[in-house]
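Hi C.,

You asked whether I'd gotten around to modeling the 100-residue construct. I have! Everything is below, sequence then structure, no commentary in between.
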Amino acid sequence: MVLWGKSEVVNERNERYAAFKTLTEKMVPGSWDYLLPMTAKQMTKTMAIKVPISEASAKVRQGPPSDDKDWTGLILVKPVKGTPVPGPDAEELKLPEHLR
């Protein structure tokens, strides 16, 4: 799939805050309420970009891949959440429930 759109910097504070929260919760569910609130300095130094989609294209296949001369098939790629590794100051602390 290919998506086209023109990127835009998100300048409005509440929209940026919502974007950071959405991204954090997507990557590590349950983390946003556990983390310290973002400071004004962090908000100033972190950019958020949105890309409204104007066009999209996808290749759709009917049936399994085939070719008489070469190997064909599927290679599945999956994102995997790894085991948390504590920082030096957190080695003795209990891992938060939402990270288990």
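If it helps when you're writing up: DSSP finds two helices and four strands in the chain.

Thanks,
B.
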